[in-house]
What we know:
The structure is a homodimer of 402-residue chains.
Chain A: E1 11-17, H1 33-36, H2 40-48, E2 50-55, H3 65-72, H4 83-90, E3 100-109, E4 115-117, H5 127-138, E5 146-151, E6 156-162, H6 190-208, H7 210-217, E7 225-233, H8 240-244, E8 248-252, H9 255-263, E9 267-270, H10 273-283, E10 289-294, H11 296-302, H12 306-319, E11 329-334, E12 351-357, E13 379-382, H13 386-393
Parallel strand pairs in A: 1-10, 1-11, 2-13, 8-9, 8-10
Antiparallel strand pairs in A: 2-12, 3-4, 3-6, 3-7, 5-6, 11-12
Amino acid sequence: xxxxxxxxxxxxxxxxxxxxxxxxxxxxxxxxxxxxxxxxxxxxxxxxxxxxxxxxxxxxxxxxxxxxxxxxxxxxxxxxxxxxxxxxxxxxxxxxxxxxxxxxxxxxxxxxxxxxxxxxxxxxxxxxxxxxxxxxxxxxxxxxxxxxxxxxxxxxxxxxxxxxxxxxxxxxxxxxxxxxxxxxxxxxxxxxxxxxxxxxxxxxxxxxxxxxxxxxxxxxxxxxxxxxxxxxxxxxxxxxxxxxxxxxxxxxxxxxxxxxxxxxxxxxxxxxxxxxxxxxxxxxxxxxxxxxxxxxxxxxxxxxxxxxxxxxxxxxxxxxxxxxxxxxxxxxxxxxxxxxxxxxxxxxxxxxxxxxxxxxxxxxxxxxxxxxxxxxxxxxxxxxxxxxxxxxxxxxxxxxxx
Amino acid sequence: xxxxxxxxxxxxxxxxxxxxxxxxxxxxxxxxxxxxxxxxxxxxxxxxxxxxxxxxxxxxxxxxxxxxxxxxxxxxxxxxxxxxxxxxxxxxxxxxxxxxxxxxxxxxxxxxxxxxxxxxxxxxxxxxxxxxxxxxxxxxxxxxxxxxxxxxxxxxxxxxxxxxxxxxxxxxxxxxxxxxxxxxxxxxxxxxxxxxxxxxxxxxxxxxxxxxxxxxxxxxxxxxxxxxxxxxxxxxxxxxxxxxxxxxxxxxxxxxxxxxxxxxxxxxxxxxxxxxxxxxxxxxxxxxxxxxxxxxxxxxxxxxxxxxxxxxxxxxxxxxxxxxxxxxxxxxxxxxxxxxxxxxxxxxxxxxxxxxxxxxxxxxxxxxxxxxxxxxxxxxxxxxxxxxxxxxxxxxxxxxxx
Lengths: 402, 402
């Protein structure tokens, strides 16, 4: 992507309904959750604005949420660090060039080190203290690096290795399901040794920790094993403000999306669903561009619950109502990828996108759904095209090569 | 293209109806052959599955069959060797890195070496023996290489130069129509000298050969001249199994398509139209992916016979009927490119594509034709997207950047 230059004009908003794209479901009368949802506000926007659909990366390719959001902000796959970097930034940890970050699960294993609960009861009690204890024991290490361990939400955490010199391409130790042991790298590389060192040291600390005795007394699974996922090295990329010419702010309630925004130099705010639109309206006073993320639709998709997904879409629609009052704003509403409820996984299906607001042209489409958008003004685009299209429809795209 | 990782799920099939894409014909009441054909099986698949269209390379670019199939298998233009390589592999000749291969026509020329029949009566009689005779005379050559000459079908053959050191970029000697002399390269490069050497030596042998006297006695045109086409050097590419994560087998009745499949490391089987589906069902037991190729539609297109093309589509549709019984398979049906009967040549027009089977979502389109697919779920993709899209619709695409 080259840099984009902007003309003056309305402020811009991007609203992502995570995993909103879906397939027709028998349970919904062969409609998709978006088609089936009662969503008068989005439908009005579709009626007053214009629509199309996007493939997040390329047709058929299922995108992870990090990479898919990077595309929506105008960044390619080669500009994406490992997911741990986003998660660490999203947890409020600052990273410098060369720092390595990974997500961790506090998990429960048995005597043979077979995982019996990948999420240690989804319970975060005493895990702040346990993380500190592990961190202390990792301070002395043969790699000459500082290792930080932080508990974030529920069973989740982040581990950061400061100033790592070598490569860091390494598989997750998380076997992905219960009944298996953690998968330790077998190689002789520094990173393989580091992962083994962290795993064993942490295991020893966790097995003996007083905090776990407290957990067991309270009837919750001990967190006696770390599962390491998405190891990635931080590197700086061209900031969003330079690439897109927009001073941006982000609103979400999940570390990953806040982390992506911070990685690109945006200000990022943790806000619950009910307050997101109000916060967005406030931030529009100060920023050129506000990104708002809604997560619950994707969770319902991963659970395979298309009716719940429809209800979550309806809730979001209600929350968006105040946006219809805006006069000097243009916005896009879309998903980062499709998560068909029947697959319970991200897919490479097309994702509907809607544009509305100041200067945005009106097409003949009267509602917002996977099939309705096929007759829309915008036609088929890619994830990286969504923001340039919004800038364009808002009348703010400056001619290239003039 | 990066590598694709797969989730478990249904086995996959790709059915290519060569050159199936076309334009509306006056003779067919302004329908295309595919639109006009009575094809209840494909229409049922379209009704139960979903559709779209693809541009083989990019919009407007007419693809050769080799390059178009390479795209369908997920390979770019830069990964395609000259066509002779595919033809040689398809004829069952093994190639090593550095081997050069070309297609040859056994042709008929007059005393002045003007081509009077580019295909020597399309008659293969005694050409096996004649090829051997030419090969013997080429054994002694000033290039220090082994040259192999093989007759394949009708007037066609293959020539292979083993262990060629230099470049091999060179024009076809085939003038492409009768009434012209073969076009010999004029340069001083080794490859220019080699082509001239082969041409002259072969011409001398063929002019004097007893096998041609037999042909003339039997009233068929002598094969007294070689036309050399599609010179290419073999090089290995990443095997299909590694790139797409699928163990593949191919079924066709033409060397080119078998050659492309072998070039990518697939097992390839020569099977006549009537037995193709039965063979495919057998191979599905052993392979993850089966490719089935039908050629006759393209032949009818090159003859400009849209009614014949329609009939060939109808015949293929009948042959596909047993596929409707499959329960744990997802398939795509498409063409490698369009060959509009009015042009009698490959074109860069859009090519309809149909997806059907396990997990594949149903869209609102009720039949399979150039115009009907425009309302389909899949929209516009490229040749290289067809297989990722099939993998995705079958619910087997693993998330990228998880």
